[in-house]
Amino acid sequence: MFAVAKGAPGGWVEKSKHVGQSFELLPIDERIQQYRDMADATFLKAQKIEDPEMRSQYLSMASNWHALAQQLEAGNPDPQAPPPVQDPVPPSHQDTK
């Protein structure tokens, strides 16, 4: 989901509503959608680029965003997310050997 924001003088750019927020802080379903939105935006940008090498780089980025979304949909952990924090074992449950 994108909101319109004032861009360069006389121009408009699309700006994500999650700008400045780390993707890993989003719930999985929102993160998947954000990755898809990034893939779409990057693909659309590639369509407008005339330089073949630059276009190829944008298409590669779009493919990577799409792959991240697919990994999350398949239940694979997000490589961008920090590992889950485990609670320490309470002293009463520690092995006392």
Briefly summarize what is shown:
The chain has 97 residues and is mainly alpha-helical.
Shape: elongated
Strand content: 5-15%
Extended strand count:
2
* Average pLDDT taken over every residue: 76
**SS field, number of helical segments:** 2
Radius of gyration: 19 Å
- Helix percentage range: 40-55%
Class per helix and strand makeup: mainly alpha
One letter per element, helices H and strands E, the order comes to EEHH
Strand order of the largest sheet: 1-2
Straight-line distance between termini: 56 Å
Low-confidence stretches: 1-13
Biggest β-sheet: count, sense, barrel?
A: 2 strands, antiparallel
Would you kindly provide a written description of the structure presented here, covering whatever features stand out?
This protein has a domain at 1-7 and 26-76. Strands 1-2 form a two-stranded antiparallel sheet. The chain starts with a strand and ends in a 24-residue tail after the last helix. With 97 residues, the protein is mainly α. The chain has helices at residues 28-48, 52-73; strands at residues 2-6, 12-16. The chain has two helices and two strands. α1 (28-48) runs antiparallel to α2 (52-73).
Topology, element by element:
Layout: E1 2-6, E2 12-16, H1 28-48, H2 52-73
Antiparallel strand pairs: 1-2
Q: Keywords for this structure?
A:
two-stranded antiparallel ribbon, 97 residues, 2 helices
